[in-house]
Amino acid sequence: NVDGKAIALNAGGKAGTSAGFFLPLDRAARALALLQADEPVPRGTLQAVCVHQPFDEASRLGLPADTEAELRARQPSLRGVLVLSELLPEGPAAAALEVGDILLKVGGEWCTSFVDLEAALDDSVGGSVALTVCRGGAAVERTVRVDDLHALTPSRYIEFGGAVLNELSYQQARNHAMAVKGVYVAHPGYSLRLARVTKGSVICAAGHEETPDLDSLLRVIRAAPHGSRLSLRFYDVNNRGHAQLSSLLVDHKWHPLVDNRRDAATATWRAQAVALDAAATPAAAAEAA
Known about the structure:
It is elongated, with a radius of gyration of 24 Å. It has helices at 25-36, 55-60, 65-74, 114-122, 170-176, 189-194, 214-223, 282-288, and strands spanning 8-13, 20-24, 44-45, 48-54, 80-87, 102-106, 109-110, 128-135, 138-145, 147-148, 156-160, 163-167, 183-187, 201-206, 209-210, 229-236, 239-249, 258-263, 268-273. Strands 11, 12, 13, 14, 15, 16, 17, 18 and 19 form a 9-stranded antiparallel β-sheet that branches. Strands 4, 5, 6, 7, 8 and 9 form a 6-stranded antiparallel β-sheet that branches. A two-stranded antiparallel ribbon has the order 1-2. The longest helix has 12 residues, at 25-36. By secondary structure, it is an alpha+beta fold.
């Protein structure tokens, strides 16, 4: 500010414009203090998105006049409230909340800012929070599970046939309004490109097994013999309604299967070769032939 004091953290901007995006320092300062104490930084999420709406819009959505008056009396500078704008399918909030719900209380306390909401969620990771929302003019109470945002952010990927695959991230799921599950093709490499599986696809089944995560896909790949054909069911994130089938030529000889995991302590990636099932090794396949 004009006094030379830091009041926000720059989060990004838009090229070719003067637009900038900033985060309030409250949560950044908390994260810094935890890092300085060598402690983890918990991040909670309901897999939902809120937007700040002025009181005029909140009134249109059903916020009672007496509730608005009480909020203004508590915080004279308050100009609006938080409103649910997005709910990720199959997320913890999907069955409990609705788009257009006005957030009133979290854990029994009035909650009208993003900082208050994030603080409540970060303190409840792995547990649940009691929410009071206004829906159509009536107060509705719900208890919602709080997911670990770190667990929804990929910290692992596998390499197979020259391809790079990771579990679908929370951020990608938000971009495309889809559930946070499935194996995402970050780079198709040699084998997947031949099978016409493009970058940005989600592999939802391999062989006869569903593949909601990397471990399920790894089990199928490890057991598939070198040189065999493996059926894949997948879809493009931009066209989820159109599932596609393809046949993948399994190559364990020229493209070893590698599991890469991020080491949070050192902020480095550790690669480890994945042992194949005995019948799937190139040598075993050659002897069988």
